[in-house]
Amino acid sequence: MKLVDIAYTAKERKEENAEMAVSSAKAPEYPYGLSITLNEETLAKLGIEELPRVGDEMHVEAVAKVTSVSMRSDKSDEDERCVSLQITELACEPEGAEEVSSERGTASKPKRTVASYYREGKG
Predict the structure, then answer these.
(1) Do both 25 and 72 map to the same domain?
(2) What's the rounded Cα separation, in Å, for the pair 39 and 76?
């Protein structure tokens, strides 16, 4: 599967800034809805024992179910299309880790959880 850079182009970012009435410094780099948050339970299911550092890259592979599809037209004759996806299966590994396995299932429970990481005073 080919990876595509989804960051706003300079033109898209300028248009987004104008719509949101924010300064360039505060404007988002990526479109709304393209961020995911992994909580304690999800990190455990994924077998992520140690927290990555901010700025580290992770490889993510997912399966998602289409939950809604819509298309609308207005006076400007520009069609607006939208597809909503619910991630149902997810794999996540640090940069440089082995290729994500195609086997589906839950990773084994980690030896140390994120909560224990903070209890140990390392976070």
Answers:
(1) no
(2) 42
